[in-house]
Amino acid sequence: MPLPTPKIDSRTFDVLVRETLGLAPRYSRSWARPQKQDPGHALTEVFGAINEMILERLNRFPDKVFAELLDLIGMRLRLPIPARSLARFELSREREEGTWVPAGTRVGTIDGPDGEPIVFETERDVFVFESQLCAVYSRHRDLWAEHQGADQGFQPFADLQPVEDWLVIDDPRIDALRGKCDLKLYLECPKTKGGDVRDFLSWEIGDPVTGWQPVATSRLDDPQRPDDKLVVVQGPIEGLQNPGGWQTQPPSLRARISGRSAFPEAVEVARLSLSVGANARGVRPSQALTSLGDGFFAVIDQASHFQPFGPRPKLGVALYLLAEACLDTPDSRIEIEFNLSDSPSVKTPRPSLDLIVVYEYFNGSDWIGLGATTPFGAKGTYLPHLFTDETRALSRDGKVGFNRPADIRSLAVRGIEGRWIRARISQGDYGSRDEAERPLRPPVLRRIRVRQQQVPGPAAQVGFCHDFQREDWSEKLTEGAAGLRMLRPRPQLPPLLVFGFDPKPAAKPLAMFFALDQVFHELEASAPNGGLEVEGQRVVWEYHNGRDWSPLFPRDNLDMFTRSGCVEFMVPYDLAEVEQFGRRASWVRARFAGMGSRQPAVPRVLSISTNAVEIQHRRTERKVLLGAGDGTPHQLLRFPKTPVLAQPRLWVLEAQAPSEQQARAILQESGALAIKVDPDDPERGTWVLWREVKTFADSGTSSRHFLLDHLKGTVVFGDGQRGLCPANGDEVVVEYHLGGGLEGNVALASISELQDAVPYIEAVSNPWQGMGGLPLGDLREVMQSGPQLIKNRQRAVTGEDYEWLVREQFGEVARVRCFDDPTREGRVEVTVIPAPLAEDLAAKLLPSAQLVKTIRDHLAARCQIALTLDIGPARFVDIEVQLVMALKVGGARVERVKAHIETCVRRFLHATRGGPHGNGWPFGRSLMPSDVLKSLEAVAEIDFIADLRMQRAGKRVPKIVLQARELIHIAAFDIVEVMGR
To answer: Which of 421, 737, 903, 904 is most buried (CB neighbours < 10 A)?
Structure first.
């Protein structure tokens, strides 16, 4: 800190009045004892007040001289610093091919503190794509993790799970699981020894879009086919009946292969076939009718015992059955099980010896026979349906079986549409009431069950997913190919962050902005980069060209994912859409090289923004005519608005083009575009970009230089000897920026207005908050920094130098302290406390990893090479405070008073606002109970404080003792209210 400015005369009003009254008796003997009621006393106070004002102005003289001396050495007030943020644009759906947003496009908030919007400008051109970042994955060795949404934030390489292999089956027959059907899978694994492959398969149903759900399976073994491993999936599956589920196509069935290390050897699959059948218990017909002749039908109640042919069976009476779940599946075997009534009062049916019951189906034009049965069994086989009957014309329990006809069609029976099967009496009966020797005994059934089992056949599509790559096994499994291994070794890949884009982006510049969680977590102060171990870590960017991964050479300022920043690259023309991680997209990845088996140290990613560009809180004034040259030395022109931010561009329209030698010097100083012919009228002259300098000391006779006072907005040119002066009539045009200040530090998502219309851009937002905005500096700041600049000349030697270099360069730092530790020679310890971004007294003020790294780089360039810089946060000691007190208020005000008491205590112990002087709790100062009580002296609502309890690490202590780098953080605050005295 600079020495305090000495005062020429330090007397105050009271001293002046007291001295005057003391001298009064010496000059006026009649006024020996001045009284306050005397007019002379009032006159003395008037002169005392006037003299105090004179002395105050006199005491300012040293400050004025000091300021003038600083001005002579070039010290200036700090210009306003514009806040920076990020603008993300949304493309209209009418423009699928994307569009350009030019540099200088203005965006802003809806309104600011004064009712006017806070305006930002884009720093460069940006191409807005229709393509979106659709997927983000982490991969390390044989582990991986999917990160759901880039906007939601994620922790790379956290919660990794093993990469699993899948056997995926796509077939229309899987859709039968919606109803009461079973799906049977036959896995032929002839070379499997020492284990059952079904022990390592977990089955799921669904699709990648709507998700997957586990399904229960059971096992069956066929002694005649010992190599077949039969898996049965039983329907109905409830999820498939969800209206929001699979509607347009049947779901897929997949088997997850687990337990790789436990399986004794590799598993090979030779064949895979499917069949659909009714549940093992069968399904009850959805409709059962009895045709009694003359177009009359009786509905059968299947919930109780019923007579399938009515009470008086006769010629032409028929039983109609409808079971859509079974008859819809082609190439299947149908079984209808009939169970007679077991009631003691019901007698066994007695069919006539000539009874014939014919089973039929409708083919679209007529009823066609499936087969016929008699009291002695089936009558023939009725090829090709292979009809069988165990019931002997429904005279006993049994099954009727037949192959489903390929030409069966729907028919409306009694207004009910469906594929019907009927059993019709074509001859004979079940007795007669007229003949005593043949009493009427019609069949009485207690239930009918229909089963269906499809003939096993190969699946339509079978794919094997190994390491997220799908292989088509359909044809190979149909042919019974060998060598289809289900367990394979997996490549041990380096750490990868993989990003997928959909649809494929155009061959334009694409930028990905990463917002990283850079809060310094509770780490050891000596941990480099805030605990991020990046030694030997390199990030290599690659893209997939459809065949392999190719190198990508982006502009990357993430510093190996240790700081927020941007990765920008030109989209390669051969960027391809391929399948990775089970989905098709265009892929870019970051490969962490040089890590060995270590997992990379990457902080939490808060968001990834595309279609975005950097913005600054500023307003650009373009093509502002300052005036014309008059050829006089040191000509002065004025900017219309001030203060002028850094790096204005001043152009002079010179009637005579610079010589070849001058042109080379201008291009070398100001760039390739510093000289250009007037596009409107080439004969008018040549526009030349002039350069701002701090002094004309190094300027020559032809140097296009000028001096600029940014605060006053005045431009001064040379005199022809030191710096060129514009010729008479040469126009002077300038492009400069206005703005800056604290109001630019806007909150997240507060920018939502397009101040300039851009075609096909429909919305804008800021995924980052505004940061870094500072107002115009003041004289006190210059008077403090001036002596330090003279003293250290931007070199750090003493601890005060380190503190000043950080404080002077980083406005976001609220406190900085350099500690001297004699036991650690060659190490400089700098503790940094950032300025709070919000009014949150309970938050720990921990610097970001990016801020720590930036400060380290800044100090490393200004200190001795042999020193080790230890930049880190303060060590906060968590304490718990409990106050036992009585309050003077009650009712609804109690909670507000308690909140006010907590705020007072937290503010008094705060790292930047607390302490005796309000500039932060001192480092290493122990906390006494009296300190807490002192912070509550001004709270009038407190009646008395009965007890104060402070705890550290769960133990009550009489005081909190701190070490040199430690500060206090209240982890828990509690108020216990007791009754008054």
So the answer is: 421
Per-residue pLDDT of 191-220, as tens digits, reads 555 567 777 788 888 877 777 888 888 777
784-838 residue pLDDT tens:
666 766 666 677 777 788 888 888 777 778 888 888 766 667 788 888 888 876 6
Q: How many alpha carbons lie under 13 Å from residue 8 in its C-beta half-sphere?
A: 12
Rounded Cα distance, 823 and 28, in Å: 71
Q: What is the model's pLDDT at position 888?
A: 82
| Contact between 88 and 578 (Cβ < 8 Å) | no
pTM for the whole structure: 0.65
**What are the structure tokens assigned to 29, written together?**
């003997």
CA distance 873 to 860: 18
Name 492's Cβ contacts closer than 8 Å, sequence gap at least 6: 141, 142
Q: Give CA angle at 658 (657, 660), nearest 5°.
A: 120
Total residue count of the chain as it appears in this document: 981
Start-to-end CA span in the chain (Å)? 51
State the pairing for strand pair 493-502/583-593.
Answer: antiparallel
Please say whether the beta carbons of 385 and 331 come within 8 A.
no
CA trace torsion 713, 715, 716, 720 (10° rounding): 180
Cα separation, 777 vs 80, in Å, equals: 7
* DSSP characters over 270-310: -EEEEEEEE-TT-B--SEEEEEEETTEEEE--TTS-B-TT-
Confidence band (pLDDT; 50, 70, 90) for 726? very high
- Side-chain-side CA neighbours of 387 within 13 Å: the count stands at 22
111 burial (CB, 10 Å; 0-12 / 13-18 / 19+) is exposed
Residue 90 near residue 33, CB atoms below 8 Å: no
Instruction: Please answer whether residues 590 and 62 qualify as being in contact, where contact means their C-beta atoms are separated by less than 8 angstroms.
Output: no
The torsion angles phi and psi of 722, rounded to 5 degrees, stand at -110, 85
Closest by CA to 862, choosing from 784, 809, 783, is 809
Of 512, 579, 497, nearest in space to 542 by CA: 497
Query: Cα angle vertex 576, ends 572, 579, to 5°?
Result: 145
What's the CA gap between 497 and 591, in Å, rounded?
Answer: 7
Above pLDDT 70, what percent of the chain?
85
Look at residue 955 and give its three-state secondary structure.
strand
Q: Report the candidate in 624, 638, 674 with the shortest Cα–Cα distance to residue 654.
A: 674
CA distance 776 to 646: 13
**Structure tokens of 795?**
């070199």
Beta bridge partners, 498, equal 137, 589
Mean pLDDT of 29-52: 79
3-state SS of 847-893? CEHHHHHHHHHHHHCCCCCCCEEEEECCEEEEEEEEEEEEECCCCCH
* Residue 431 near residue 350 (C-beta atoms within 8 A): yes
Instruction: Give pLDDT, residue 692.
Output: 92
Measured in whole angstroms, the distance separating CA 678 from the mean position of its chain's CA atoms is 49
Tell me if 618 sits within 8 A of 82, measured CB to CB: yes
For the segment 388-426, what is each residue's pLDDT rounded down to a tens digit?
Answer: 999 999 999 999 999 989 899 999 998 899 999 999 999
Interhelix angle for 799-809 vs 849-860, to 10°?
Answer: 120
- CB–CB of 617/118 below 8 Å? yes
CB 117 within 8 A of CB 756: no
**Please, what sign has the CA dihedral across residues 309, 310, 315, 317?**
negative
Q: Is the dihedral of CA 736, 741, 744, 745 positive or negative?
A: positive
Residue type at 98 in one-letter notation: G
Given the structure tokens 């002596």, which residue do they identify?
787
Nearest to 962 by CA among 906, 878, 881, 882: 878
Q: Is 420 exposed, middle or buried (0-12, 13-18, 19+ CB in 10 A)?
A: buried
